[in-house]
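Hi U.,

Before I forget, here's the chain from the pilot set. I'm dumping it here mostly so it's searchable later in email.
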Amino acid sequence: MGSYVSWTVEEGIALITLDAREESVNVLNGDFLGELEEAARALRSEKEVQAAVVSSAKEKGFIAGADIHEIEGVENAAEGAALARKGQQIFALWNALPFPVVAAIHGHCLGGGTEFALACHYRIAAEDATVGLPEVKLGILPGFGGTQRLPRLISIEKTLGIILTGRTVKAGEAERIGLVDRLVPADGLRHEATVLAREAAIDSRHLDRARKRKNKGLRAWLLEKNPLGRSFLFKKARHDTAGKTGGNYPAPLRALEVIRKGLEVSIEEGLRIEAEALGQLIVTPECKNLIHVYLLSRRPKKGAGVKCHPREIHRAAVLGAGVMGGGIAQLLAARGIPVLLKDLREEAVEAGLEQARKIFRQQAEKRGGDPDKVAEKMNRITGSTEYGQIGEADMVVEAVVEKMSVKQAVLQEVEPLLKESAVFATNTSALSVSELQSVSERPGNVGGMHFFNPVHRMPLVEIIRGEKTDDQTIATLFAAARNLGKTPIVVTDRPGFLVNRLLVAYLIEACLLTESGVSWQTIDHRAEEFGMPMGPFRLIDEVGIDIATEVGRTLTRAFSHLRKSPFLDRLAESDLLGKKGGLGFYRYEKKKREEPNPDIEQVLGAHSSRNASEDDWRRLLLVMVNEAARCLDEGIVAHPEDIDTGVVFGTGFPPFRGGLCRWADSQGLPDLVKEMDALSARLGERFVPAGFVKTREGFYTDRVHTGRFE
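Structure:
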């Protein structure tokens, strides 16, 4: 018995247990795969075995996927293809065993775990199981047989919906589409899997007939059982996928072609095609960058970088029931934390509760959940104009109007009502946490927790350390953000913190370009072509023109190297509010496509004389790169990983580029410094290279663990 795979034989049934002894979850690395191979060969020679059940000893699930670091370490296509062939061959040994093998799945079953389950003859799932093939999110495709076995098991349409998006499938849906054969309660999984194994050993025909019935129907026949329907299906999938990826993510389109070609040949030939494609994708820049982003998302598991243990959060309060406050309350309630939502006015409280209820409803509709669960979750939120039981709160999040005097008044009012261990977090986007602390009796318990709008969708939370914030408060806020499903980074208390400081530099530079005669619409087009979710002017509309201009003024006052934009001042004086007012750089009308607002030229005060060039777009990127370097020089954040985490999860910087620092390194940082020198001679101090980048080969060079976050 090895460190990963063990088994016993009971009354003719081999009970196989997967358990990576030194890990919290099962991850398929080279050693794990080796033991799976040894186990398959040994079981083949066990004469008394009539059937087998494979289950996991891990509480969290079956198999979490392949080892990301082993994927990251592949350096050439031949090595990648060989890795795929090895996995395929090992899983094929299990598929070729002379008795039925049942995969008993609970919790997460992802990537290589799902491919192993597909190689087994039958699958039974606990009600808590989730199954998926998320490889496209890492810039690759399922390479251990997933692209070939899944479309031979379930409908092609369902296969494409799973593989091309990388989405996970809950147990109920998996059973309906035939991905698993039976669905059972978690506490009966092993027993029911053994029952299924015995049934299959005696006579499997009724099981096979039941599986086929799930994929019958007129739609399946029209789309999959004739050449014209199948051709239409793949053509539509190709069109939809190309539109969603914008040509920036090669893996989904390649996976589509591998599935299509594989269905035209034998499974053996299909596996060869799959392995070759995996090898080619695994060495692409997109794959390496997406792995980098994945590792960024896992990095907060290491904690906030302080030696204190966080306090536990059992109850919370949110002060201010606006859009942000309602969103934060919803997030807390969704994670099972009772929360008080308090505002001065009853109508504001009701609006905040409705905001939370709306999010719960949308999530229930999207995920196919029980609408009755909405009421259950809403019962965790108590709306009030009084402080009530706020003394029981372990954490208070302040989300009132963005004015220091108001925030200080709220803190002074509520602090005497709180227990001494309670932490107080201000959800500010730019105001000083240290200044807020100046009115506190317990400043060590006060920090910042900057959520991004919309709260339920944006992954990033900036945890802000004021001058007097103690380590345990930082640890507590960081852990709370993680428990809410967010990706936190710790930042020092300076105007704009990290993300807004970078964004404002970028947005101001876009306005300065426009003032020089560059078409603002073509700047937005350049941004979208680069992979940004939207251009800078559409972003100003989304944020709100009033907010964007106020934050811009705050930061240009705080940092003398940032040049003021007269255009922003004129915007502030206009009646335009952006999306929330229905009119900004674009027109926002219900049921109509958003169109540019022609009246914006009057605010601009000058007409565009040329379209944005590649050099213009690089200028916007370079001002952000230099500002990021300044943030590292000033200790706003500690590592380039914090920069990349901030821009990817807080601004939508294209994940396939890996983040701002990763992009700069791909361009050659010394070359970018030369570009900055040239721009500084023409445009001034903001482009004078910061100390961090002057003598380095890259943001991630001269480090013991380059980008690996060990």
